[in-house]
């Protein structure tokens, strides 16, 4: 009877984990659209850069969903082979996303630095950009709290990582807000500076992910060669 209730709880946990991951996809899709459209219309490099960051977040969300799905499938079959294969997918996916993040971050950095050099003629950012950027902070902080509560309940490490990511996204949106406020106060360069900082943060996110993936994959290979 205890094994039945354990199975029930596992299924319940899996459902909650998937629900949290899907909520993140939905929120990020909405935020990304609003950030890119309003960022472009209200002349905010910072908001636009943060919108591109949210696009990268969608990629990360996709990875979380894939990892959850593969680990559920592997747990069902309980074979070492499936586990190895799901780990290999995770490694390949993580490396792909880290390369995308580094490239996107550098591109954002480069574009905003070139905008900074002609900031004297750039129009100042419009108020709707500020409203959206503040909304992003609130939404990402709420997402952090929700995912973290599910992560603690289901003891899912990938959800813990995903929750902390949402918290760092809230910080990135704070940078965008500072840039927009600076631009509205008459320093147009501050918005491009914020965009450059966000670009660096995106690239750093990619570098951290790549390094973590390398370390984990190396540890697994070492464990494999010593015969486990
Ligand atoms: Zn992010």
The overall average pLDDT, rounded, is 85
**In this structure, how is the largest beta sheet organized?**
none
Enumerate how many helices there are, as a single number: 6
Total separate domains: 1
Number of strands: 0
CATH fourth-tier homologous superfamily: Cation efflux protein transmembrane domain
Provide the list of bound ligands, each named once.
zinc ion
Instruction: Classify the helix fraction into a percent range.
Output: over 70%
Element order, helices and strands?
Answer: HHHHHH
Shape: globular
Derived from helix and strand composition plus strand pairing, the structural class reads mainly alpha
CATH architecture: Up-down Bundle
Transmembrane segments: 21-43, 55-75, 95-113, 125-148, 169-187, 193-211
Organism: Caballeronia sordidicola
Domain Cation efflux protein transmembrane: 23-215
GO cellular component, one term: membrane
